[in-house]
Write a structure and sequence with these properties.
about 450 residues, three-stranded mixed sheet, eight-stranded parallel barrel, TIM Barrel, 13 strands, alpha/beta
Length: about 450
Amino acid sequence: MVAGDRSGDQARRERMPTSAPLPIGRIRRDFIWGVSTSSFQIEGATREDGRGPSVWDTYGQTGAIANHDTGDVACDHYRRYPDDIALMQKLGVQAYRFSVAWPRVLPKGRGMPNEAGLAFYDRVIDVLLAAGIEPWLCLYHWDLPQALDDLGGWTTRNSVGWFADYAALVADRYGDRVKRFATFNEPSIFTLFGLGFGTGKRATTSVDALHRSIHHVNLAHGAAVDAIRARVPDSLLGAIHNYQPCLASRPGDKNAAERCDAYWNNAFPDPQYLGTYPHLMRSAIEPHMQAGDLARIRRPVDWFGLNHYSPVFVKTDTNSVTGFGFGDRPPEIPVTPNGWPIMPDSFRDTLLSVSKRYALPVYVLENGFGGFDKPDATGAVIDTDRIEFLRAYIGALNAAVVGGADIRGYFIWSLLDNFEWDAGYSVRFGLIYIDYPTQRRIPKASFEWYRDLIKAARNV
């Protein structure tokens, strides 16, 4: 639907669920409502203005992504960011979490910065601030410069210094306007699944490579915290963790579930916030540690970023370097169109557990619904299932607050339909529909629902 299409607007509203109350009863008045994106998934312009290639550019060239999709154009946010920020302003969000593309500002990952790339994020930040939206800047959302991957990437301890230098560059450039920084997004995902982007399917190559990379990413987190803190003393720092309960697919898979929990959920927040690795993986990490490493990792931070979609069901897999693999879910559990279990009570329990375990304010920085949305005959996108999912999950968040969890914000994944990694453009998570051939933006019914929820929350 285009703006001003009254018939489309009326059709959408007639089909939106309106009877259930908004799930915001106990959420604090200063709660932050936002949306999230990432650089590679929306920017496009992968070969323009001096940007270097990332590992995802290399991986896309192999043809292994669904439909042979690539990130070359994505949502063309590199050119259309003013329009996208105007839509955020219309939505009413208070904050926008985005990521800087490391290869856009440092084409070779180190050395001479790229002024054109740095200037792009200057423009984004300035337009956000002019719109009254706080920028939340994430340093790393998986797009490692290919030049650094060629030198060993996260498997070499040199990566700690590379990342610290990159963090210093970003802090020096944007720290006068940006105060919220995240070091990494979902380090458990890009280490567990992402060490082989350039060689086809994403699989860890060895036990040694996996554990070295986990430790080096943790060290890089600590080094980046120190680098930003030194340059932006009033900054508020954190990291963003993909935290999903690991459930045994069968009774005999209890140990596999425990190993999944260690690697997926605790391999990064435990050393970063508690100063220790989970016991199930400690002996595998120790050969890669040096004296003082845990103190270098455990640096003071201000908040815990949590991404949550659904639990994972796991089974024992002796061929896996971690000892677990994906098992079958119980058939009675409903799933999203892209096959992820819908279990809002699990979200509530995760929030309670994380808040208690790490004793930090929690911001939910990704939660959302993957579907196969299409405009209807009127041009409207009536994503009722997404609205019901968001209602249930925000209701679960409210229940966690009632139970004592310190939750300070909620950001939907995602503002826009975008490049969804191995799924390419086949799965849609956005509040805004992207017609990729024309790059037309069509706010979905969920966009209006979230806008109305934010308005109501501010008036509570």
